Request: fold
Amino acid sequence: MGQLISILTFPGVIIHEFSHEFFCRFLGVRVKKVCYFRFGNPAGYVLHEASHYFYQAFFVAAGPFILGSLLSAASFLLSRNENELLREYFWIWIGASIAFNCLPSRGDAKTLWLENWSHLKRNIFAILGIPFSALIWSLSRLDSVWLRIFYAGFLFYFTF
Reply:
């Protein structure tokens, strides 16, 4: 079932991995390898060096949620302005697939949680990051198809 969902929502998988890569490159974290989509588990991945600063770890881990939410909402907004039904459904599918895949993976959440605690003694922002890291960790633990569908529906509803 997981592979079927990955195939149906492949644009979202690609955006998820692109978001990790984008924030790595933007914040100066060296990227070693990127796989935007594959048939397997995980459906995509980004291998990068460890971050030196908490803000790097935070944005690299939370990047898919931040960028994915924005791109999903933009796709839903584009669907509103379409006069042709097929193109409207296309943008809804793109927006839904991005929203479906923008929630943090367990690997993303674990990395952020560990980075948060390792930077705690040296960085005041790491203290402020604890609630956000806890939220991301909790979302990854609650992860289910229904949560992802709910989030896609939430974004769709609030852009219409």
Notes: The chain has one domain: 2-159.
